[in-house]
Amino acid sequence: MSLEKIAGEIRSCKRCPLHASRTNAVPGEGNPKARVVFVGEAPGRNEDLQGRPFVGAAGKLLTELLASIGLRREDVFITNVVKCRPPNNRDPRPEEIEACLPFLKRQLRVIDPDVIVALGRHSALTLLRLAGREEERSIMRIRGKVFEVELFGRKRSLMPTLHPAAALYNPKLKPLLEEDFKRLKELLGEDNEGKGLEAWF
Ligand code: URA
Predict the structure, then answer these.
(1) What confidence tens digit (pLDDT) does each residue in 76-116 have?
(2) Which of 103, 100, 127, 102 is nearest to 115 (CA)?
(3) Which CATH code fits 3-193?
(4) Backbone angle region of 54, left / alpha / beta, with phi > 0 → left and psi within -120 to 50 → alpha
(5) Cα 131 to ligand 1 centre (Å)
(6) Range with the poorest average pLDDT among 58-62, 131-135, 161-165, 196-200
(7) I need a labelling partner for 154 at 20 to 30 A (CA). Which of 17, 132, 146, 197 fits?
(8) In ligand 1, which atom is closest to the CA atom of 40?
């Protein structure tokens, strides 16, 4: 199973009504061997037009946050829970998330990351539920926490953080995102037994 095959299936998917209004499905992109996968909510307007994840304003902030801890977009893998844009950027519906989730699961199995960063509440709750952990519903309480979860046959670290778009609406939230990315950097260093980020990529 390759990421390209999964992406092909996503591009021709008609499992939920979102296919009818999409310009492009957005499978995700990045390093197929990434140690870290970022999972957002769903594509927005720019992503739908380009078929690429996080290429609008929120994406610019995500790229900056990555750079702040020495990572490039091509070092990591970036995707979303839902691969097609919900009309007018409304929240994805539970049945749309369910229909799309097998794609994310397959992507995570193939990439086999050590760390999964959930961007925003929807992604965090979906991934915690996948891991059988439904303890906390407020993103403000769980952001920056590292959950050691059992997913797809082994232990992985799951760190929820705020959605970058939240910090665009409310700039006071930006320092919290920056803090969480510092935590991520520490986590990568820790798991690497102090060898530094270089050894990861
Ligand atoms: N917001 C998301 O959750 N995902 C994207 O790809 C872009 C914006």
Answers:
(1) 999 999 999 999 999 999 999 999 999 999 999 999 999 99
(2) 127
(3) 3.40.470.10
(4) left
(5) 22
(6) 196-200
(7) 197
(8) 3
